[in-house]
Design goal:
With about 110 residues, the chain is mainly alpha-helical. The protein has one domain (about 5-110). The chain has helices at about 5-15, 20-30, 30-35, 40-55, 55-75, 85-110. The longest helix has 24 residues, at about 85-110. The chain is extended, with a radius of gyration of 18 Å.
Length: about 110
């Protein structure tokens, strides 16, 4: 197999991970589908237990931010074909401020 064929195979294998395809998938998923997917549940559970066992504030805050941004992206992204408006940006901005505030509070202000 020469380099050209290998590059074509790699391109075809990675095509589902293009930004447009990922955004389309995220916009069409429901929160129930995301939070009931076995792979997502296993990863979140493993990271949660690792964070609890190691008492790692960083790991738990990262997990909080990840789940928060999934919820925000689901509610703030406009439906396919709609333009991004100020009304649709408000939940994203508000949620981002809340998540950022919680992370700053627990990471920088609250001491152990």
């Amino acid at each position: 197999m020469d380099k050209g064929q290998l590059a074509e195979k790699a391109t075809e294998a990675l095509r589902p991970f293009e930004t447009a395809n990922l955004m389309n998938t995220i916009q069409n998923l429901t929160l129930k589908q995301i939070f009931t997917h076995p792979t997502f549940l296993i990863i979140v559970t493993a990271v949660f237990f690792f964070g609890v066992i190691k008492r790692s504030k960083t790991v738990l805050l990262t997990l909080f931010a990840l789940i928060g941004f999934i919820v925000i992206a689901r509610f703030a992204m406009p439906a396919p074909g709609e333009e991004l408006s100020m009304k649709s940006m408000l939940p994203f901005v508000g949620g981002g401020v809340v998540i950022g505030s919680v992370i700053i509070y627990f990471a920088l202000i609250k001491s152990d």
